[in-house]
Amino acid sequence: MDDAEFFLKGYYTERYTIKDPSNPPTSDEIAKNIKKYLSEDEYNAQIANRYYSLPSLIAMELNKSIEIQDVRLEEQSKNEDGTIDYIYTIKIKVYDEKSSKVYEKEGELTLSTTNNELKITRDFSRGIEIEGLETGGL
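RESULT FIELD:
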């Protein structure tokens, strides 16, 4: 696993992991934990779009835990401003004691390096439908 994959596994783990569906982290707690991974502009955009409430709501509605199993990256292009565009696939496991299902979520993102620190400057993905969920998906 290279630096970018390691960095993104940390980000998606913080963003999606819900260990206890009866007491999930709040969207504010999730936002605080992932802020270090994002540029200020991307962080503000994600807050405005309420990205961080979905995993907790889904875990509570299904009464199931959520965890990240894998993150795969494919570099698309290196840009003139020094950023790099990627296509990614993350495997998200939704489970309880009785059942377990792994979903694949695909998206695109851009990483920048400032002062030897990686930051996500863009993260776009399509929603995935979660079995048994009436309100949509992740």
